[in-house]
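Quick one:
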Amino acid sequence: MKKTKVIISFLLVFLIVCAAISCVGCDKKKDNKNDYVIGIISDPQIVAASDVGDDDYESFLDFNAVGQKMLFISEAILKTAVDKLIEQEVDAVLIPGDLTENGSKAGHEMVASQCARLEAAGISVYAMCGNHDINKTPKKYMTVEQANAQGLTIYETFSDGSCSVRVPGVSPEEFMTIYHNYGYDNAVALDRLDEPVHVTITKKGEITEYEYDEVGTMSYVQDLPGSNFRLISIDAANYYEDENEKTYYMTYYGEDHKTEIKGTGYPVMTDRLFKWTETQLNAAKEAGKKPIVMSHFPINNQMGDVVGLLTDGIDNRMNMARELLSLFAEYNVEYVFTGHLHTQHETSYTSTFFETTVNDVETGCLSNYPLPMRYLSFGNDGKVSIRNDYLSSVKEEYLPSYLNDQTIRTAITTDLQKYALDPFIYNNLMTNFENRINDGGQYHLFYKLFDMLEVDADGTHQEQLDDLASYIYNDLYKAFMEMPVYKTAGKNSVEAICEKYGVSLPASERYRDKGVFQFFIQVLGKFYKYDYENDGGPITYDSAEGQILRYSICSIFDILAQSELFTKLHAINPNIVESAISGNFLNKLFNDGVIDLLCDNLIFNIATVLNPLIEDYIDLSGLSPETLVSTVKTFIDTIGLGLLENKGLYDKETKTILGVPFDSLLTVGSKDGAPVMQIHLFTLLKDLVFDKVGEGILN
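Output:
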């Protein structure tokens, strides 16, 4: 009996101690939560479930095929993300634009309802618009029968009896009403004009003046509760259109303020908005507040310097970006939170003059792989940490009623990361390509190409052209896309092709069971995620990805050499050489990485196909190898390099393309008295694609 009492007493004491420790732990956690934590989700791109109707409708599938976003469960994804933000006990949440996919009012109201959930949990929410949100033409998807029964005007019909109808979108005024509590209520400052400002400007290189009315933006300023942070939300989305030019703004790009007329979907930072931003930064300084900035469009270059150069920053980052970065550095803006590009990326700009660094933290699309979220913790000790998180599932109770496929339901509630990349993006892009290339068996793209190349100049081989189009699509294009990377019984593969030429493909379990296109999807996923340290390492020329990529490109030539393509072309047009690609050429390609255009007359064989397309620029027919090389070299020196120089890609003095010697990429001339015309494919991929174009993106 005593023994029993002793045991009971011991257990009671143990439970009391555990309870005390537990309580102390709870208080400690609460008292020590000194970090100010900001949660970020971007580009949720919601399509309200009520607008989808059914994810099996052809009308919705056609709409959804344009991107790689899981629009059919975008509501469920956002609700699950909000649950996580509440569980993480963040202090504030930022949403840098593209709240909806197509700007429907129902979509915005759904997003606002989730903002309300966060607010009810004591979390401040700050949202802004993106280029998908305002003055769009949203649609709802249903059956024709349903549309007629409701007296709705049908926009487009599909073969399965489904259709799309217009639904209400939102204006800037309606947007600010819907999101009144999430940035606009009691703002420190708002950028709204009582009257539009009439602007007259001349486009660079033109004389005629361009006139338009510049309206106020939906930019705002808020002090974040419980912190010393002042948020400056800069709305530079172009959501207005001019009746004549189909755009509302003249925008500036580049250091020389090159002017371009741009339509909706592009950033439109103006001189007036720039000055407003400067005023707000100065006010924050005077108030002793720490400024942070939110913008839908990235400010710093998130796509690498070369891509920025090629695009002039257009639709890559904010116009007037250089001026903004200098301004932010001057006012010690350490963090800018952005979205738009759908990659989980961070870049920094350091001003040596102001001795400050501006960090542009771009958060990827929430409804796209890898379904990212970010948490930024600002400690009292001044330390800042960024933690990435990814949704691994959505809750069953949040799934839409129209989702009847149990296999998909299971996949997205158990391993959403796997489903989001492959099969979802894979199937989505394949469907997209199918629609654009196959076009229901019509092959319009191929027939357009046949016309340009004058394959059937006299128009007497329609049946053979039909057979050729089907052959190119099914036996070449699809066969290559679905070809395994590694050897698989009964199938051709990249690895098997490499072995024919004595080349070993590097082993990679990550791509062991993947086809060529699945491999590209996996690489795309790594780029979206941009967490190379925890995702198999960076993508470099010598990495498994780099090697598989280059040998996949080489494999295309082997497939063409073994195919009936040139035989079929020759049967339609006898001028086209029946056999174009030789074994000698393929050996040089796989082993030396050289596309030897003179090897076994390859350039002349290809010229018989391409001549109708290029003869206005350079006629290769009837030339000797020596004359051909001389003609091509003259063309490159007088026209080709000049075009690259105008784009800022070629330096005439150093004879380099983006710092890479031109001669190392292309050799056109003579060697040991013999004509030479070679493309150094591997050098081009290594020095130009990976080291230059990929710098800041792939590593």
